[in-house]
Amino acid sequence: MQVSVVMATYNGERYILEQLDSLARQTVYPAELIVSDDGSSDRTLDIVREFASTAPFPVRILTKDKNLGYANNFLYGATHCTHELIAFCDQDDVWLPNKIKVERDRIIADGSVLALHVHMLTDANLHPIEELKQGIQEDKVCEPLTLDPNRNAWGNTMMFRREILTSFSYKNRPYKPQYPDRPLSHDKWIYALASGLGRISEIREPLALYRQHGKNIYGFSKKNLVTTFLYRVHISMWRFREKMVYFKKLSEIFYEISQDSSSPFKENAERSYLFYKKMSDKIRDRLDIYYNRSFFKRAKAWKKLYGGSSFLKSSPIKDLIVGVSGFHFFLKQTA
Predict the structure, then answer these.
(1) What is the rounded average pLDDT of the residues 273-287?
(2) Which of 152, 16, 5, 10 lies closest to 68, judged by CA?
(3) Residues 6+ positions from 92 with CB-CB distance below 8 Å
(4) pTM of the shown model
(5) Domain residue ranges of the chain, discontinuous segments joined by +
(6) How would you list the strands of the sheet with 140-142, edge to edge?
(7) CA atoms of 289 and 310, how far apart (whole Å)
(8) Which of 37, 299, 307, 326 is most buried (CB neighbours < 10 A)?
């Protein structure tokens, strides 16, 4: 299987050559590099063209009449890829020499539709800071629908089968639950599809250097203790509602995929449709714990949702203390 690499660029002249050079040092070259530029006004494209003149693989540059934004720019570039596997490539990172080979080989060996790996967070000069594991503790193969659908999967660690991208138009992807005016980012969209349509390979080895330089389009930050505490105790009904709408939309997407008799994902799409429909219905039931004015109806809604599950989990306890008790009404009045 051959790999297309898609790099989304925008005014990246400062670091892009290091990333391009790291692609040329891969133990397995990409079959093509698609550079999708979003209207750079610096020397970014000059650097890419100069690199392309001596690159050991074909390089294609896509330009546009209007700015698409980083997520749509990645997805637009991905639709122009021609090979079986696609890897997203940030303009300011550096890939370690075996990244393409390790991810490609794992996808083939595991029969997976997407691979994710650990990466190394660095400063602007590529001095290591810490590993970003994104939940990966060991080399593992994860079956469909066994991973958190809201996982923060990083695009610069991804390689995936092209059929994932073409299974449903990215232009009709759902909006983010926490940002209802913004569609899913390119990586969250591909991950949401992949986690429902096939296996995912997790790779414990760091395969890329994730550079932080203060001007990243999408950076990394840690929550402090106060923020973490408030997140644990806070109940945001509008976020629940948005998540319910999001899961409902995903169920509709998977249902549409399941109706395509030629799709290689037909059976998994059918299961994912039912899975996300159930998740949407569960959130609707959870909202009943908070919106009912009657204590007895709130208690009944809590029992319906959690009656068969472990009481020691955080959500049942939070919903009992804050929701069933009516304490959230007090919080709302005193806010």
Answers:
(1) 90
(2) 10
(3) 12, 14, 15, 16, 19, 211, 213, 216
(4) 0.85
(5) 3-211, 225-334
(6) 59-62, 32-37, 3-9, 85-90, 159-161, 114-117, 200-203, 140-142
(7) 18
(8) 37
For domain 3-211, which CATH number applies: 3.40.190.10, 1.10.3720.10, 3.90.550.10, 3.40.50.300? 3.90.550.10
**CA angle 306–311–313, rounded 5-degree value:** 100
Angle CA(138)–CA(119)–CA(174) in degrees, nearest 5?
Answer: 90
Which residue type is seen at 82?
T
Phi/psi of residue 317, nearest 5 degrees: -65, -45
Measured at the alpha carbon of residue 189, what is the angle toward residues 244 and 151, in degrees to the nearest 5? 70
User: What percentage of residues in the chain have a pLDDT greater than 70?
Assistant: 88
Confidence band of 148 (pLDDT split at 50, 70, 90): confident
* Contact call for residues 197 and 263 (beta carbons, < 8 A): no
The length of the chain in residues reads 335
Q: What is the DSSP secondary-structure string of 193-230?
A: HHHHHS-EEEE-S--EEEE--S--SS------HHHHHH
| H/E element, 174 | none
Q: What interhelical angle do 237-258 and 266-291 show, nearest 10?
A: 160
**Alpha-carbon span 212 to 129, nearest angstrom:** 10
β 32-37/59-62 pair status: parallel
